[in-house]
Amino acid sequence: MKEIEAWVRPNIKALKPYASARDEFKGEASVYLDANENSFGSPLPQNYNRYPDPLQKELKEKISRVKGVPPQNIFLGNGSDEAIDLLFRVFCEPAQDKVLICPPTYGMYEVSAHIHNVDIVRVNLLPGFELDVEQILESLTPSVKLLFICSPNNPTANSFHADDVELLVQKFNGIVVIDEAYINYSRQKSAIRWLTEYDNLVVLQTFSKAWGLAALRLGMAFASETIIHYLNKVKPPYNINIATQQYALEALDNIQ
Ligand SMILES: Cc1ncc(COP(=O)(O)O)c(C=O)c1O
């Protein structure tokens, strides 16, 4: 077990998160007076005048059954891009910590790093687009807090060798984010199978690609309870809107 807590930014550890009416009341209610919702309903047939469940419990239960991951190990984001952004917020001290990426790869890791003023360490893929494991291990200095591995990789389309990826998860004293946005197009087995073994692992998946639901903006992060706790702590309170939650539940019911 690694020291996840020790890598969390001190201000995030100390943060008293926003508590919504929905968080504080555990039972079933149709009216939350302190939420200041419009009690006259919405112009649409659905109850869009009410705020959505901030922790998306019903949706997580259903995703849990499909993915074989307990609900407490699931975080849902407004696209997996939101999970990427929140990982920087939790683990990277601006102007101090670093992130390691392996170009050519998905551009958002770099954009998020710039947004958070986090320096980027680049270890290019080898000819043939494999990971340069030796060079990555050498470059993982203590200031590197996040390592992004996109597998299958955008834009090269190959999946990395499972042994290489697992070795990096084992050796790195920091968070390894395995972005599996394209996992459903590949024969590669998901890194979800390593979650019970490594608490410094985050696996990202999304409803935007094989599910054909990019417009709904729904991404998944699977990780240890500690990491999920901190992602929930820093997320905007109602980050997954109610229409997205309802449509995703419907899509999950329609799996062939
Ligand atoms: C590798 C990779 N990760 C994440 C994303 C973003 O996915 P989402 O739509 O869930 O934010 C993309 C989108 O192109 C991608 O290529």
Tell me the span between the first and last alpha carbons. Answer: 38 Å
Ligand kinds: pyridoxal-5'-phosphate
Indicate the low-confidence ranges by residue numbers: none
Alpha-beta content class: alpha/beta
CATH architecture: 3-Layer(aba) Sandwich
Lateral strand order in the biggest sheet: 1-7-6-5-4-2-3
Count of DSSP helices? 10
What fold name goes in the CATH topology slot? Aspartate Aminotransferase, domain 2
**What portion of residues belong to β-strands?**
5-15%
Give the quaternary arrangement of the chains: single chain
Number of strands: 7
Query: Which radius of gyration do the C-alpha atoms yield?
Result: 19 Å
Give me the CATH superfamily: Type I PLP-dependent aspartate aminotransferase-like (Major domain)
Overall pLDDT score: 95
Order of helices and strands: HHHHEHEHEHEHEEEHH
Largest sheet: 7 strands, mixed
The residue fraction in helices comes out at 25-40%
Please give a structural write-up:
This protein has 256 residues and is of the alpha/beta class. It has a single domain (4-20, 56-253), classed as Aspartate Aminotransferase, domain 2. Helix content is 32%, strand content 14%. The protein has ten helices and seven strands. The chain has helices at residues 4-7, 10-14, 21-24, 57-67, 80-91, 108-115, 133-139, 162-171, 225-234, 242-253, and strands at residues 74-77, 98-101, 119-122, 144-150, 175-179, 201-206, 219-223. The protein has a seven-stranded mixed β-sheet, with helices on both faces. Strand 2, helix 6 and strand 3 (119-122) form a beta-alpha-beta unit. Helix 4 packs parallel to helix 10 and helix 5 packs across helix 6. The protein is globular, with a radius of gyration of 19 Å. It starts with a helix and ends with a helix. The mean pLDDT is 95. Bound molecules: pyridoxal-5'-phosphate. Pyridoxal-5'-phosphate is lined by residues 79-81, 106, 150, 154, 179, 181, 206, 208, 214, 219.
